[in-house]
From TrEMBL:
Keywords: Endoplasmic reticulum, Heme, Iron, Lipid-binding, Membrane, Metal-binding, Microsome, Monooxygenase, Oxidoreductase, Steroid-binding, Steroidogenesis. The lineage of its organism: Eukaryota, Metazoa, Chordata, Craniata, Vertebrata. This is Steroid 21-hydroxylase. Belongs to the cytochrome P450 family. Pfam families: p450 (PF00067). Signal peptide: none annotated. InterPro entries: Cyt_P450 (IPR001128), Cyt_P450_CS (IPR017972), Cyt_P450_E_grp-I (IPR002401), Cyt_P450_sf (IPR036396). It is a peripheral membrane protein. GO terms for molecular function: heme binding; iron ion binding; steroid 17-alpha-monooxygenase activity; steroid 21-monooxygenase activity; steroid binding.
Length: 518
C-alpha cells in the first residue's frame, strides 16, 4: 500500500533534500560495511594499531606521501614499531624496527616469505614467473636456488676480477675528466650494469652504447612508473582496470621492449651464463632434487613448471636489482663525502698507510681498512637504497610482537625506519661514519642495520654488492678527491623516494690525489 502511494508522489516531491541526505548516508554506511568485510574477512588485524582512514580509500593519503619511508617512520612514533594501514581492498602491515623486522623475516622466515599477488606484478612478469616478485612456491624455490648457485659460481671464479676491471675503467674515465664539474650517476650505472652483463652474458657495453642506453632507460622507466600512484591504484582498486589508463598502457609497451632486448641478448650470447651454464646448473639442480626426493618417495615439486621464462625473468631481476641499487649507493656515497671532505681525507690516509701506493686494493684488504668499512656501513644505514624492501606476504596465520597477522596480508619492512630509529641511533639523520668506526665492537654495531633485508627473501646479490661497494669506493678514494662543483652547490641529500631511493642529480669536481704507481 505504501509503495503504491509512493508511486503517486512525483519525483520532484520525493527527492527533497532530507531524502537525498538519508539516501547518501545509507549508501555510505552500506559501502563502509562492505569495505570492512572485504578488508578484514576474519577481523584479522583488529588488535593492530594504525591511523584512522577515510571510507573506501582508507589510508590512501598516508601512502601517497612523497617521502613514504620517512612518513611511515613518523607514524611509528605514534603507533609503535608494528602497525597497519588500509588501502582499497588491501591491509598492509608495516614493520619499523630492526627487532620486529628480524622477528618476522628471520625467526618466522617461512611465514613471511611470500609476495603479494598483484595485477600489475603478474602482468609484467609472465604471470608471476619473476624471482623478486614471485610468490613462495616450489618453482620459485628452484628459480632462487638456480640464480644463487650461478652467482656463487661467479663469485668463486671471476667476480672480483670483473669488478676490479670495471673500477679501473671508471677511474680512467674520471682521470680524463679531472677538473671538470660532472654528474657521475651515468658512469656509475654503466660500470655497475657492465658487471652484471659480464657475469650473465660475458660481454660489456661501451660508454654510450645504444643497447645499454636502451635497456637502462627501459628498466629505469619500469621502476619509476611501477612506483607511481596511478599504476599502484590498479592493484588496490580492481574497478579501475576497466577504464583506460595511459600510464599503464605505456608501461606495458616498455615491458615489451625490455623483453625483446633480453630475448635478443639471450639469443646472441648462446654459449654463456644464461644459456649453457644456466641450463647445466638447472639440470644439475633438478637432478639433485629429483634424486633426493626419489629417496624420500615423492616427485620434485615445482620442477615441471620451471620454464625458460623463469630464466628470462631472473636475468631481468639481476639487471634491475644489480644496477639501480649499487649505482644509487655509489651516487649517495659521493654526495655525502662531498659534504664531509675530512672523511675522504681519513679514508685516503688509511688506504695509503695499509695498502700504500704501489698496488691496487683487493677485497682481502677489507678487514684492515676499518674506517672505509665504517663509511660504507654508514651510507647503507642513512640511505638504504631499497628503503621499503619489496613487499612481503604472509604464507599462513602468524604474529609479530604479539600481534596476530592473518595469512595473505601484505607486510612492508621499513628498512629506512629501522635505520633511523631514534631509540637506537644517536643523531640518526647525520652522516657520521665514526659511529661505527669508534664503536667498541664495530662488527656488532654494523649488525644493527639491515640494508639487504633478511630471511628467505634476503637480497640475492648481497655478496656481489659488498664486493662492488668495497672495490669501487677504495679505488675512487685512493685516487681522487670529490669536491663541490665550481658553482659551489653541494649535493642535495634528500633524494627521490621510489622503489629505489636515488639522490637527485648533482655535479661534483673530481681532482687527482697524488701520483700513484699502480
Ligand atoms: C647496495 C646494493 C644493494 C642493496 C642495498 C640491495 C637491497 C635489496 C633489498 C632490500 C631487497 C629486498 C629483500 C626483501 O624483499 O626483503 C633486495 C632483493 C633482491 N636483490 Fe638486492 N640489493 C643490492 C644489490 C643487488 C645486486 C648487485 C643484485 C644482483 C646481482 C641484487 C639482486 C636482488 C634480487 C634478485 C632480489 C630479489 C630477491 C627475492 O625476492 O628473493 N641486489 N635487494
Amino acid at each position: 500500500k505504501n509503495l503504491k502511494s509512493i508511486n503517486h508522489i512525483s519525483l520532484e516531491n520525493a527527492m527533497t533534500p532530507a531524502l537525498w541526505i538519508l539516501l547518501s548516508i545509507l549508501i555510505a554506511v552500506k559501502a563502509l560495511l562492505r569495505w570492512r568485510t572485504a578488508v578484514e574477512p576474519s577481523n584479522p588485524g583488529a588488535a593492530l594499531p594504525g591511523p584512522t582512514g577515510l571510507p573506501l580509500v582508507g589510508n590512501l593519503l598516508d601512502l601517497k606521501k612523497p617521502e613514504l619511508p620517512v612518513h611511515l617512520a613518523e607514524l611509528a612514533k605514534r603507533f609503535g614499531p608494528v602497525y597497519r594501514l588500509r588501502f582499497g581492498c588491501q591491509t598492509l602491515v608495516v614493520l619499523n624496527s630492526t627487532e620486529v623486522i628480524r622477528e618476522a623475516l628471520v625467526r618466522k622466515w617461512a611465514d613471511f616469505a611470500g609476495r603479494p599477488h598483484t595485477f600489475t606484478g603478474e602482468a609484467i612478469s609472465f604471470g608471476g614467473k619473476d624471482l623478486s616478485l614471485g610468490d613462495y612456491t616450489p618453482t620459485w624455490k628452484i628459480q632462487r636456488k638456480l640464480v644463487y648457485a650461478s652467482l656463487q659460481h661467479c663469485f668463486k671464479t671471476n667476480l672480483e676480477a670483473v669488478v676490479t676491471g670495471e673500477a679501473r675503467k671508471l677511474c680512467e674515465e674520471f682521470r680524463n675528466s679531472c677538473g671538470i664539474s660532472l654528474d657521475p650517476a651515468h658512469d656509475f650505472s654503466m660500470h655497475v650494469c657492465n658487471i652484471i652483463c659480464s657475469l650473465a652474458f660475458r660481454t660489456t657495453f661501451e660508454k654510450d652504447d645504444k643497447d645499454f642506453l636502451e635497456i637502462h632507460a627501459c628498466l629505469d622507466e619500469i621502476v619509476q612508473r611501477w612506483g607511481s600512484p596511478s599504476i599502484g591504484a590498479l592493484d588496490s582498486f580492481p574497478i579501475l582496470r576497466k577504464f583506460p589508463n595511459a600510464a599503464w598502457k605505456s608501461m606495458l609497451a616498455v615491458v615489451q621492449k625490455r623483453d625483446s632486448i633480453v630475448r635478443r641478448y639471450l639469443k646472441q650470447h648462446k654459449d654463456t651464463f644464461q644459456t649453457q651454464e644456466v641450463r647445466d646448473i638447472t639440470d644439475t639442480l633438478i637432478k639433485f632434487l629429483r634424486d633426493k626426493e626419489q629417496e624420500e618417495g615423492s616427485s620434485v615439486k615445482g620442477a615441471e613448471e620451471f620454464s625458460e621464462e623463469h630464466v628470462h625473468m631472473a636475468i631481468v631481476d639481476l639487471f634491475v636489482g644489480g644496477t639501480e641499487t649499487t649505482a644509487s649507493w655509489l651516487a649517495w656515497a659521493v654526495a655525502f663525502l662531498v659534504h664531509r671532505p675530512e672523511v675522504q681525507d681519513r679514508i685516503y690516509s688509511e688506504i695509503c698507510e695499509v695498502i700504500g701506493v704501489e698496488r691496487l686494493p683487493v677485497y682481502a684488504d677489507r678487514d684492515r681498512l676499518p674506517f672505509l668499512n665504517a663509511t660504507i656501513t654508514e651510507v647503507l644505514r642513512l640511505r638504504p637504497v631499497a628503503p621499503l624492501a619489496i613487499p612481503h606476504a604472509t604464507t599462513k596465520d602468524t604474529s609479530v610482537a604479539g600481534y596476530f597477522i592473518p595469512k595473505g596480508v601484505t607486510v612492508i619492512p621499513n628498512l629506512y625506519g629501522a635505520h633511523h630509529d631514534e631509540s637506537k641511533w644517536r643523531d640518526p639523520t647525520h652522516f657520521r661514519p665514526e659511529r661505527f668506526a669508534d664503536a667498541t665492537n664495530p662488527r656488532k654495531a654494523a649488525q644493527g642495520i639491515i640494508p639487504f633485508s633478511a630471511g628467505a627473501r634476503v637480497c640475492l646479490g648481497e655478496t656481489v654488492a659488498k664486493v662492488e661497494l668495497f672495490i669501487f669506493t677504495a679505488f675512487l678514494l685512493r685516487e681522487f678527491k670529490f669536491l663541490p662543483p665550481d658553482s659551489g652547490e653541494l649535493p642535495d641529500l634528500k633524494g627521490n623516494y621510489g622503489i629505489v631511493l636515488k639522490p637527485k642529480p648533482y655535479t661534483v669536481k673530481i681532482t687527482p690525489r697524488a701520483t700513484l704507481h699502480a
